[in-house]
Amino acid sequence: MRRSLLAAVTALIALPALAALPNGAKAPDFTIDAALAGKGFKFTLSDALKSGPVVLYFFPKVFTSGCTAEAHDFAEASDKFKALGATVIGVSHDPIDQVTEFSTKECRNKFAVGSDADGSVMKKYDSVLLGHTDFADRTSYVIAPTGEILYSYTAMNPDKHVENTMAAVKKYQEAHGKG
Fold first, then answer.
1. How confident is the model over 60-102, as pLDDT tens digits?
2. 107 tagged catalytic
3. Which of 89, 124, 132, 176 fits a 20 to 30 Å CA distance from 54?
């Protein structure tokens, strides 16, 4: 009994947390300050969706090891996402000046990153790190051009975010004759 309880608890801890916004939900629209290749602009989700699916990923803090690794992974995959017609944007609670620097150094000028300085976007997406309200949880969403959430994934380990979102974008494009 004791072993099975321990095994069950261990299994639950090992599983990635579920993103709070479920597949099929309507993605909340937002506009935030963002940067691409060190140049600032306003990013609006509804505008980006006019071009195709959007991969929206939240990350806790610029220039930390996991967030830097994840940014490198998205940068390396950015041409594949573009070929599939998808826009990638990373979002953190960091101020725009830090996000702008991160866009050149760690995102390698390949995709936009946004500053959710007031935390409103991560709250709308239920992507606030439990117990640390000044940080986003590491959550990735794939959003269809209709605004429907196609896929969501939450895990502090950055390893599977690019792989999983790429698979979801491919699946969407194949179903719509674009893949």
1. 999 999 999 999 999 999 999 999 999 999 999 999 999 999 9
2. no
3. 132
